[in-house]
Design goal:
The protein is mainly beta and about 300 residues long. It contains 2 helices and 25 strands. It has a domain of about 150 residues: Immunoglobulin-like. Strand 2 and strand 3 form a beta hairpin. The longest helix has 7 residues.
Length: about 300
């Protein structure tokens, strides 16, 4: 089975559906665990449990699918279906204005949605519950399926012209240029710079219990320490749970050019450093993660006056 190279480079992974045909070219109906084996619930250690990746009801999930070769489909010819855990079709999704197909100068193409369009039209609003997306690329006769996400009704509240992540922490990251890897490309912008992609995830956690760090340089003379440079800064922390595929995407935050964290009160932090340390549960499908962030809280002093 072939899987898209960058499944784990964005919060909601997509995979190619496994399809089989009989001798007459008719497609054979496969059971879900055979047709969609990459979903977390079908991992042997998950015991049919999925992870509730949070998604606001008025914002589509953030994803990208990279194909290293082939002709890019026309965006209007791609069809999205919202599917329930029992694999029944809930509705056909109206594609967001954030849905794009970009052809890459290096070859291949990317299908993506940054999940940055706030929808107010009822036809775009997602019903509350847990779902996955089935994407049909009619031009290339490919069917993709996503892992599960959970639509919550209180994830975003409007504050004037701003939408704040109520009860959640919103983490966004992007690069100014595409990130090339040995297995492909993580798409962030097209050659003209007119189409861009931003990774975005909502976490059920809050920043708290910070550490106050202190570095200093100097020398000791006659039993007294004389500081030549002192630096104090603050390290923010948060704890959340995540599966492997989400951590695969979030490990790229430390490599990103722009990292923005927004709390429920509208406070935004521009992260200078970002580190995630996972502690895996005994079952192995979920990790309890500690997130550490530093930003512009540095206070520096050179020398120290004496009397």
């Amino acid at each position: 089975m072939k899987r898209a190279f960058n499944n784990n480079y964005s919060p909601l992974p997509f995979y190619r559906m496994v399809r089989q045909y009989d001798g007459q070219g008719n497609e054979i109906a496969l059971p879900p665990d055979v047709a969609m084996p990459m979903q977390l619930r079908y991992a042997t250690y998950s015991f049919k449990a999925s992870y509730p990746l949070l998604c606001p009801k008025n914002v589509y999930p953030c994803f990208q699918i990279y194909e290293p070769e082939g002709t890019a489909p026309v965006a209007n010819n791609v069809v999205l279906y919202l599917m329930s855990p029992d694999n029944s079709q809930v509705k056909q999704l109206s594609k967001s204005t954030g849905f794009h197909v970009a052809t890459l100068s290096s070859g291949g193409y990317v299908i993506f949605d940054s999940g940055n369009t706030i929808h107010t039209n009822s036809s775009f609003i997602l019903p509350l519950g847990t779902y996955y997306i089935k994407m049909v690329d009619n031009d290339n006769d490919i069917i993709y399926y996503s892992d599960f996400f959970t639509v919550v009704g209180d994830a975003l509240i409007q504050d004037g012209e701003n939408w704040l992540p109520r009860n959640y922490l919103k983490v966004e990251w992007r690069n100014l240029d595409n990130l090339e890897t040995e297995s492909g490309i993580v798409f962030y912008t097209n050659a003209a710079g007119t189409t861009t992609f931003t990774n975005r995830v909502y976490l059920q956690t809050q920043l708290g219990k910070p550490e106050y760090m202190f570095d200093e340089e100097g020398e000791t003379r006659n039993g007294h320490f004389f500081a030549t440079k002192q630096v104090s800064y603050k390290k923010y922390k948060a704890v959340f749970e995540a599966p492997e595929y989400l951590l695969d995407a979030m490990r790229l935050i430390r490599l990103a050019d722009i990292v923005t964290i927004t709390d429920p009160y509208g406070t935004q932090l521009q992260a200078d450093t970002f580190l995630i340390t996972p502690q895996w549960t005994e079952q192995g499908n979920i990790a309890t993660c500690t997130m550490e962030i530093t930003c512009d809280t540095v206070v520096k002093k050179c020398g120290r006056a004496t009397t």
